[in-house]
Amino acid sequence: MSETLTPVRPGKLIINGEAVDAASGKTYETYNPATESLITTVAEAGVEDVDRAVRAARAAFESGPWPKMKPAERGRILHKLGDLILQHADEIAHLETIDNGKPIFESRYIDIAMVSDCFHYFSGWATKLTGETNNVSPAFFTYTLREPLGVVGAIIPWNFPMIMVGWKAAPALAAGNCVVLKPAAETPLSAIRIGELAIEAGLPPGVFNVIPGRGSVAGEALVKHSMVDKISFTGSTEVGQHIMRTAADTVKKLTLELGGKSPNIVFADADLDAALRGAMNGIFYGKGEVCAAGSRLLVEQSIYDDFVAKLADAAKKRVPADPLHPKTRLGSLVNEKQMKSVLGYIEAGKAEGATVVAGGERQTVNGKGYFVQATVLAGVRNEMKVAQEEIFGPVLSVIPFSDLDDAVRQANDVFYGLASGVWTKDVKKAHIVARRLQAGTVYVNTYNYFDPAMPFGGYKGSGFGRDLGAACLSEYTQLKSVWLNLE
Ligand code: NAP
Ligand code: MG
Questions:
Q1: According to the model, what pLDDT value does residue 2 have?
Q2: What fold characterizes domain 263-451?
Q3: What is the pLDDT of residues 182-219, one digit of tens each?
Q4: 13-258+462-482: CATH superfamily
Q5: Among residues 153, 329, 121, which one has the least CA distance to residue 235?
Q6: Which protein residues touch ligand 1 with a CB less than 6 Å away?
Q7: Residue 147: Cβ-neighbour burial (10 angstroms; 0-12, 13-18, 19+)
Q8: What is the mean pLDDT of the chain?
């Protein structure tokens, strides 16, 4: 298996515009899950480092140039960061693939584009944030000011390490906030590299800080810190609930993007070749470690058996392989724990009566790695564990439905509400189903598309608030109402 291009430098904390060690001097090791080998060591932020980073961000917000800068200048700096990410695309994509195990094709051509697009898109918003004048009475001049919140703490997961930097930091910074970002301990390397590039782009000291460390220590300290105004979190439901409780003490604003168990509905009248490709990419892109994964495939009864047979054939061709090979489309899961959890779900599905029609096993590549085969479970009922719980791996649960009402009922009969898909050639049916699905995103005859201009977030147990789009800027600003007496 091809290894790192060059030795990867030890990762540091990025605090106040400098790459520094942890105050304790502590470091931890980050591994390549595909080879099980050590990549490098990373400085491990403790409570003291979080405090240092938050104070740097606070000082940058209170007395630094960032919030007072002309918005056009702020926009130029963020645009330059987007450019620098593109200029270092090969290097960052490589870091992402060795740290996370995802195919280099995805890191290099999907994730890099998304993270640089985020900085470019939101750089344009810096100049377009406005308040309004309000028509109250001739006796007053009344208007609103849209102001940044102050210090934003961003806590992100390991499945899209670099993309999440763009989703969280780009809009928060464009609005004039300062950011302290905690990457997942498992995958810190791309965020640290982007933190270094932010300094090169000209972000003033303290405006963007990156503090790799454990969630239970560094994440916890960030959520508790009284100088942090908001936490923007993406991750598991359990940790999101915990953050919500902890944040109550300091009345912090929150955006929570939590898990999903998204239904992808295939009607008999769909373009079935397209639906097959959509079902495959809906679950196997990102190894299925994707919050929006179309992990519950609802297939109309009349085509169920044929469609399951086609899925099984296609899944057997999607063989796990070296993530650094450009042709690979299924990489290694992020670590051994995640692999064991996914294999446990496959066993639970079998125990409840589901049939494994493709995959189902661990696989190694050159004798190493935490790969799981592209797995299709047929004969799944919506009440089974594999239909209700987020597996977060390459496992598709295929469930039959009888008609439109039954499809919508089963689709919505779940705790989550993040994404959904519908495949049909009947335009009216597509719009009816789109209205009835309880999900933050509905894909019609496509799946797993994302763009900085389209808001993304959850209904129900999948959280609240929105990343991306113009909508997310209200998550990083607050309104001040000004009354001026004219009499
Ligand atoms: P996770 O365990 O919830 O971790 C997410 C982040 O929270 C990590 O940075 C983690 O740190 C940190 N964290 C853990 N405990 C914390 C605490 N007590 N206080 C503050 N921060 C804490 O989730 P994960 O295992 O990384 O990611 C998988 C999950 O994220 C899945 O359930 C998936 O659906 C969800 N997800 C949702 C979306 C979405 O947009 N809705 C996107 C991606 C993933 P450490 O890991 O470093 O300890
Ligand atoms: Mg790693």
A1: 45
A2: Aldehyde Dehydrogenase; Chain A, domain 2 (3.40.309)
A3: 999 999 999 999 999 999 999 999 999 999 999 999 99
A4: Aldehyde Dehydrogenase; Chain A, domain 1 (3.40.605.10)
A5: 153
A6: 155-159, 182, 184-186, 214-216, 219-220, 223, 234-236, 239, 242-243, 257-260, 291, 390, 392, 418, 458, 462
A7: middle
A8: 97
